[in-house]
């Protein structure tokens, strides 16, 4: 680690628990003075976003109410951010926050701010009477809600029956998430958010991941290192492609009677991070209700998301915007980064910092809220532990530092909080530096034209076909193959409307000057593109205009929440903002004689090909004077050459890199060749 700058003191000092980020909006900012035991903050109803907060600095003890409704008492803080998001229903056109405090005459500052995001608390692993749990679906959701939880993935063993229980619905502030625990001798894994009623067949791990992806589910490995209990992950320490998260805190194994294998799970997760993998860590209660020390929100996950909708929570989990927690209502641990050097934090755990060139100094901040006496906070990077501090009296703690990275560095920063006994209490997911911006996952497509003609006549209909092959490891939830043409050059006269691989056909006759066809398949259509399988799609195009014209094509796949494949990933920027491949077809007028000039098929030769400078073009014998024209792939004429003899030497340096076509004309007849220019 380079240029470490310590900005904290050697003792803990109070902080606010939620730092406003640069993307958040300050609604009101000011200062006040406690007179007659209170101060009033007046404001108009804002156009509210998701998170709504009051930050108050300077009072050690105060009581808040909003429009006469009590919010709560907040002692022993000089700075505190209060989450008012769940109080937005109390707002009127004109509003009043009353601050009551015994600190008569004390001045303080405050700010009201809002954000598109907020922290949601819950578990992604819990059981009911639908498998080996002791509580009903209704009881579980009420218990999680009563403890302050916002979401609960009910993951009974090898069944989805609980997801169709009449009580499986929002309960208070708790939103249920569909899930099941795939339970085999190879280990246990949760499949979260998937569609369909049927349970997952107990096949290999690879087939489970394939089936989960096809049905739109995220895969989380549970208690991976619990070999002593016989429920560890057999493939450990290998990470199977397609795994989305690892449960590093598990309630029962974290308990006094458990094996405390969580530390080993954290070590494995850290090792995967050092190997360059972006994999989310989670914490979950795995509550069954059969032991006295169990708690529905013992180990749990705090997720930074834009709403508590199940899909939004799962997207945030996939991105790693997760604080892993050992218990509810205790400490909290936050990690931020300032990438703009303006003293305002703009990123949070799970996000990625890309440095395109040169060097960049990043400022990080960790915040500990309500730590216990003798808790220890540690900072880790790819090289290992880079900072450690013991909090002698507990409480709150803030630490900032700066690190300089280059565009060649691949690194991460994460933070953990340990109890005085050395056990983990909290972990952040990392902030990444120069990791892959997005991991497409183990789904790979090959998209190819099958019988694309080289030449067609104006006004003629020509059949062409494209193949879509899945060369990856999983079946996507949805997929599509698209073909496009410029409306000035072609039109689609017919296309395949049903058959293998076709769940839906979408036709857009004109998008920014392009006609587009898309064939869609996947789980919603009961059309599965399994690994190593291929679908073929046909259409007919009618040519409108002479010259070299292009046909564009691309494909995509998703796992319900994310795009997991695009083919191509780089290419021609199309009318929809996506990357496309293309091939060119030469369009003839209807009167063109489709014959070569004398000399047979080889009307002329050219070398070298590809070329970077001098091109030698040799003409075969001809009784009539020919002309040779160079076209680019858009059909634009670049150069016309009139040969004096049977050989032309042409300097290609004046051409940009790319594909060109040479057309030799002799009267009404012609010959053509393609050449690649690469300087």
TrEMBL record:
A family per Pfam: Por_Secre_tail
One GO MF term: 5'-3' DNA exonuclease activity
InterPro entries attached to this UniProt entry: PHP_domain, Pol/histidinol_Pase-like, Secre_tail
Domain Secretion system C-terminal sorting: 608-677
SUPFAM superfamilies, per the entry: PHP domain-like
UniProt xrefs under NCBIfam families: CehA_McbA_metalo, Por_Secre_tail
PANTHER family: EXONUCLEASE (PTHR42924), POLYMERASE_HISTIDINOL PHOSPHATASE N-TERMINAL DOMAIN-CONTAINING PROTEIN (PTHR42924:SF3)
Designated name of the protein: T9SS type A sorting domain-containing protein
Organism this protein belongs to: candidate division WOR-3 bacterium
